Each structure stands twice: as C-alpha cells, then as structure tokens.
Amino acid sequence: MNTLPNNLKQISLFLERLPGIGEKTANRLAFYLLRLPERDLKEFAETIGSLKSKTKLCRVCMNLTEDEICSIDKDTSRDHEIITVVEEVLDLLSFETGNIYKGVYYVLHGKIDPLNHIGPEDIYIQQLLDRVSELTSSRVNGLKKTRIKEIILAMNPDMEGEATAMYIRDRLKEVKKHNGVYFKITRLAYGLPIGASLEYADYMTLQKSIEGRNEY
Ligand SMILES: [Zn+2]
C-alpha cells in the first residue's frame, strides 16, 4: 500500500470506506479507475461532486429526486390511491426492480428504534399523516372524497419495523376516524424470514408478500 502513488492511495482509502469493500477490492477498483479514459473519469468525478446538491427529497413521497416531484409520483399510469410505506429508498427500489407494484410510495427514511434514540418525530411519520389527512379530507361538491384506497405498511419484519408499523397503523386509524373515511391498512404477508431485510429480498418473495398482504 505504501508503494502506491499518493493520489492512488487516497482513492483506494476512500473506496475502502464504502460498505462491503475491503482493502484488496479498494486497490483493485482504484487501479481500474486509473485505466479508464480521462473523459469518463472527469464525468464520473463531476457526477459525484454534484451528488449531494442535485439530490433532494420528493415533496410528495420523500423519495430521492432531482426535481420537486419524483418520477413515480409524476407517472399518471400508476395507481395513486394505493400508497406503500417503506423505511428506505432502497426498499422502494426492491419493489421497482421486480416491476410487481403499480401504486405509489411513501419513504420514512428510518424506523422507530428506541434503543438508538430514534422516535416517531425523527423520521417522516408526521408528514405521512399530514398527507393522508389532506388526501382524505378534501371535499368535492360538499361530499367527502377519499383519494386513498389502501395504505400498505411495508416495514421490515424485525422488531423496530413491527413497532413502526403498529405506531403508524394506530395513527392512521385516528385519521380515518377524524375524517370519517375508509381506506384499507394492510401489512405485507411475510414469506420473508423474521429479521430479513426487504432490500435483499428477491422479487419473487416480494411479489408473494404483496399479493398475500393482510388487513392490519
Ligand atoms: Zn415522490
């Protein structure tokens, strides 16, 4: 490692900070970068440089986007009356990869985790409740109009995920009662092992769990 030129060493050390990358892989990747055409490297560097400033949260669903509203919420062919609530953007990507779901999402960016001092107010639960409240309380011609058919709670099947789902379910029930509306609240039917992560679930398993979801 010490025999590497300084800039190559720096890049290797940076790559080593990425998840799942050890020293050997980091070195290999750094050498690979060195062999790329200058133009590709510059483009890559510019993209990385603007990653933070260009990426923001969709103001509808908190998904990551370069615009105000993400491509999923802009897609009129999707069913906007079915909302799947996920912990992380990576979970959303798992559903999208399998092309098994045609509704929209809401991303919490975390889960309730008392041991690590993460409470409901630390993730985007209130924003979700506000959104649901707004969608179900609008009046058309004096009649109440529900613009949500179903909310699918797709938190991971671990203790924190379960606690988060229960908390949201109870708060959503309050919204239903308050607005005098009905929509289904469901939880994925887990063929997934307890403690498994949605991020790593194959799409067949995800498809089964979304098809067999239960009212919660
Ligand atoms: Zn969105």
Automatic annotation (TrEMBL):
<dbReference type="Pfam" id="PF21176">
    <property type="entry name" value="RecR_HhH"/>
</dbReference>
<dbReference type="Pfam" id="PF13662">
    <property type="entry name" value="Toprim_4"/>
</dbReference>
<protein>
    <recommendedName>
        <fullName>Recombination protein RecR</fullName>
    </recommendedName>
</protein>
<comment type="similarity">
    <text>Belongs to the RecR family.</text>
</comment>
<feature type="domain" description="Toprim">
    <location>
        <begin position="81"/>
        <end position="193"/>
    </location>
</feature>
<keyword id="KW-0234">DNA repair</keyword>
<dbReference type="Pfam" id="PF21175">
    <property type="entry name" value="RecR_C"/>
</dbReference>
<comment type="function">
    <text>May play a role in DNA repair. It seems to be involved in an RecBC-independent recombinational process of DNA repair. It may act with RecF and RecO.</text>
</comment>
<keyword id="KW-0863">Zinc-finger</keyword>
<dbReference type="GO" id="GO:0006281">
    <property type="term" value="P:DNA repair"/>
</dbReference>
<keyword id="KW-0479">Metal-binding</keyword>
<dbReference type="GO" id="GO:0008270">
    <property type="term" value="F:zinc ion binding"/>
</dbReference>
<dbReference type="InterPro" id="IPR034137">
    <property type="entry name" value="TOPRIM_RecR"/>
</dbReference>
<dbReference type="InterPro" id="IPR023627">
    <property type="entry name" value="Rcmb_RecR"/>
</dbReference>
<keyword id="KW-0233">DNA recombination</keyword>
<dbReference type="InterPro" id="IPR000093">
    <property type="entry name" value="DNA_Rcmb_RecR"/>
</dbReference>
<keyword id="KW-0227">DNA damage</keyword>
<dbReference type="GO" id="GO:0006310">
    <property type="term" value="P:DNA recombination"/>
</dbReference>
<dbReference type="InterPro" id="IPR006171">
    <property type="entry name" value="TOPRIM_dom"/>
</dbReference>
<dbReference type="GO" id="GO:0003677">
    <property type="term" value="F:DNA binding"/>
</dbReference>
<keyword id="KW-0862">Zinc</keyword>
